[in-house]
Amino acid sequence: MSADEDHGDGFFGERAASVYDERAADMFDPAAVRPVVQMLADLAGQGGALEFGIGTGRIALPLAERGVRVAGIDNSEAMVARLRAKPGGEHIDVTIGDFARARVDGEFSLSSPSAPIPKESRSTSSGNCRLLV
Ligand SMILES: C[S@@+](CC[C@H](N)C(=O)[O-])C[C@H]1O[C@@H](n2cnc3c(N)ncnc32)[C@H](O)[C@@H]1O
How wide is the angle at C-alpha 83 spanned by C-alphas 85 and 9, nearest 5°? Predict the structure, then answer.
């Protein structure tokens, strides 16, 4: 793969995305995921959850399976393609873009970052929305 093929996907280009789940196998262990999903589902309540850096759906998919409406932002088409290929992934609303500029319509009771969120993006989380940092 040339460097150009990774352009626009940040660090998580095709090369990184192709091995992400395998390399992060410990983090995909249900024993690690379950308590996080439980906590996020409790915090989201009846509202939706917006995940910054949704990636391949490690948290988003099981959270959606719990009945939480989940949306995400990610600047890696390659990572999101992996999410889309998984069962249930086609139902998750993902905005491709950078945290600093992306806008997502809708209301969310919880937004959870998996990468540091720039200060200028934190205004997307307002009102009754909890922002986990
Ligand atoms: C370490 S992965 C985590 C993926 C997933 N949330 C998980 O827990 O497995 C970080 C994700 O954040 C995305 N990301 C990092 N910086 C970003 C930015 N500035 N804007 C949008 N997405 C970003 C990457 O593309 C990647 O998919």
Answer: 115
Please tell me the residue having the least CA distance from ligand 1 atom 22.
74
- CATH assignment, 10-131: 3.40.50.150
Q: Is 20 in the pocket of ligand 1 (CB under 6 A)?
A: no
How far apart CA 116 and CA 49 sit, in angstroms, is 17
pTM for this model (two decimals): 0.86
Tens of pLDDT, residues 38-53: 999 999 989 999 999 9
Using an 8 Å Cβ cutoff, are 83 and 92 in contact? yes
CB within 8 A of 3, min separation 6: which ones? none
Q: Express each pLDDT in 77-93 by its tens digit.
A: 999 999 999 999 999 99
- For residue 10 and ligand 1, the question of a CB distance below 6 A is answered with yes
Residue 106 token pair = 């809708």
Q: So where are the chain's domains? A: 10-131
Q: Which two tokens stand for residue 58?
A: 């490690």
